[in-house]
């Protein structure tokens, strides 16, 4: 796995060889604000999955997750709890990769766990902005965690959070406000649901309450995940998900391969010179990109008649 | 601006024409967890900047920001407060764009505001995972908001948050725990500072306390931002920042242009067929990308002797 992260070129053969063995795992995304108890819930879900005979892979995209080891004040006990069980595999994808790198690396990690026979894969990401959209791309089932709103501060529910949630969980349900938060979420789901198209058999997003630290309500979350698996299969949505995931991975692989080729043909010095010209306001990024691509074509001897950049 | 978002191809001319007029604005990134009071602080900072004679652009990348209008329960009053002042321009970049799209759109928004003479640009993003890294790429000065930790729950400070912070702000300093949170942050900065290289004149990250709702401590944050501007200029770091930002934008423009070209040469049907083959496990994404690129070369008549994909 470390090879996949550090040597994307050399590991392509491994990924290619593994690919036929993938597609069997159910991928569960768990997302929520920092402090909502994602890691604790993941550890609890893992234990229940294990009890039910599944092999569990965990990918922590959140750099603050104790699973990733990146937390400054993290409670590592939760992950230590599960260590030594060879039916459980942890992996952090908390790379500081550039544009799109995080997403591509996560997809590769998931594929490898899948190929190795882990049939339930939990992907933990901090739920905010772009990461949310990404988790929804990777996961079959997206579980969104909320914490009870004590009512003192207006908890701004992020726009789009209801759209990506397949299962809503109010964690830390021992805290005050759990009832009203769950009720508020249900009300918002009802409002949102009206605008949806009534054609296809709809999935009713359940709002569950857990106290992950005490292990309360976790079985119900696993039940809901398994219900969602069955729904995806029966409705044909699984196939749609797989297709759009394949498109995403293809696009990312194409962008990476095309960029690498341009760099190797044109040379890093010329790309650096173009960046310098952007800094000194001689040219803008889009125009500089067009010039570099045209230069690559000249070097590669592409006939100008077939030149379609301007199309 | 909407044109830049919705018609990236057609707007390239505008961006190219604007580029020579950019590079004058100081870009301030404001990041923090949901509920940390980012939007309120941005509104307060904007007012102080205006009092000091600056024109202020605001780009809200956070979809939950009231500036972006995407909040379900957001308090819009804060943004309405500033409406009607033509020295202030709001813009939401809360697009649901795919891979890297958010980042590229944000960069374009910033450039346009810059070219239009807004000399202080506040970019508000929810601080989590990848978004943080992105804001640090866009901003000259990154302000990280924290809320007081009442000590009841262990607030996991995200790894990497100290690395990207140029200014740390403990907002809602009227709440209990503000003192201890500020002290903890200072202690963590001291520990982190020891591992840094002692060569260059270092910037000492200030830890400030604000009550943005009441407008307390905001002047000090603006002072710290202006100090940081002076430091960046004097140390030569501004030029380094500009270069790495130009590299990022160039890479993103290259990836986008190369992908568009491949699509137009090879055709969408063939790309969709490749995605189908990935779903049915006939081929993996990396290999499929290689085949599509080879096919594009054949269609464009590129001599095979110049073929360097395998290099």
How would you sum up this structure, described in words?
The structure is a homodimer of 311-residue chains. Chain A has 311 residues and is of the alpha/beta class. Chain A folds into two domains: 234 residues, P-loop containing nucleotide triphosphate hydrolases (Rossmann fold, 3-Layer(aba) Sandwich); 58 residues, no CATH class. Chain A contains twelve helices and seven strands. A seven-stranded parallel beta sheet of chain A has the order 3-2-4-1-5-6-7, sandwiched between helices. The longest helix of chain A has 30 residues. Chain A is elongated and about 65 Å long. The interface between A and B is large, with 96 and 96 residues.
CATH architecture label name of the largest domain in chain A: 3-Layer(aba) Sandwich
What class, by secondary structure content of chain A?
alpha/beta
Helix content of chain A: 40-55%
Q: Number of helix segments of chain A?
A: 12
How would you state the average pLDDT of chain A, rounded? 78
Looking at the structure, what is the overall shape of chain A?
elongated
The largest β sheet of chain A comes out as: 7 strands, parallel
CATH top level of the largest domain in chain A is: Alpha Beta
CATH topology of the largest domain in chain A: Rossmann fold
**Quaternary:** homodimer
**Rg over CA atoms of chain A:** 22 Å
Order of helices and strands of chain A: HHEHEHEHEHEHEHEHHHH
* CATH superfamily label of the largest domain in chain A: P-loop containing nucleotide triphosphate hydrolases
How many structural domains in the coordinates of chain A? 2
Q: What percent strand of chain A?
A: 5-15%
According to DSSP, the number of beta strands of chain A is: 7
């Amino acid at each position: 796995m470390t090879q996949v992260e550090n040597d994307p070129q050399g590991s392509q053969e491994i990924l290619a060889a593994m690919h036929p063995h993938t597609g069997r795992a159910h991928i569960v995304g768990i997302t929520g604000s920092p402090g909502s108890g994602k890691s604790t819930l993941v550890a609890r879900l893992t234990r229940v999955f294990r009890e039910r005979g599944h092999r569990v892979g965990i990918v922590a995209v959140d750099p603050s997750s104790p699973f990733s080891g990146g937390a400054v004040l993290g409670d590592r006990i939760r992950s230590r709890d599960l260590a030594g069980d060879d039916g459980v595999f942890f992996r952090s994808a908390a790379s500081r990769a550039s544009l799109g790198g995080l997403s591509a690396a996560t997809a590769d990690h998931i594929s490898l766990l899948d190929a190795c026979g882990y049939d339930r894969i939990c992907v933990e990401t901090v739920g905010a902005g772009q990461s949310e959209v990404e988790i929804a791309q990777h996961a079959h089932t997206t579980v969104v965690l909320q914490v009870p709103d004590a009512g003192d501060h207006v908890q701004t529910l992020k726009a789009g959070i209801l759209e990506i949630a397949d299962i809503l969980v109010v964690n830390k349900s021992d805290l005050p406000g759990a009832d009203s938060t769950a009720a508020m979420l249900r009300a918002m789901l009802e409002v949102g649901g009206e605008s949806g198209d009534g054609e296809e058999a709809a999935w009713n997003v359940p709002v569950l309450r857990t106290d992950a630290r005490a292990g309360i309500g976790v079985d119900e979350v696993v039940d809901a995940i398994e219900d969602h698996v069955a729904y995806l299969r029966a409705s044909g949505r699984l196939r749609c998900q797989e297709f759009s995931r394949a498109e995403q991975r293809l696009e990312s692989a194409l962008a990476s391969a095309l960029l690498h080729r341009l760099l190797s043909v044109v040379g890093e010095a010329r790309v650096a010179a173009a960046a310098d010209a952007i800094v000194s306001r001689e040219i803008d990024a889009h125009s500089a990109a067009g010039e570099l691509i045209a230069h690559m074509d000249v070097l590669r001897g592409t006939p100008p008649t077939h030149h379609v950049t301007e199309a």
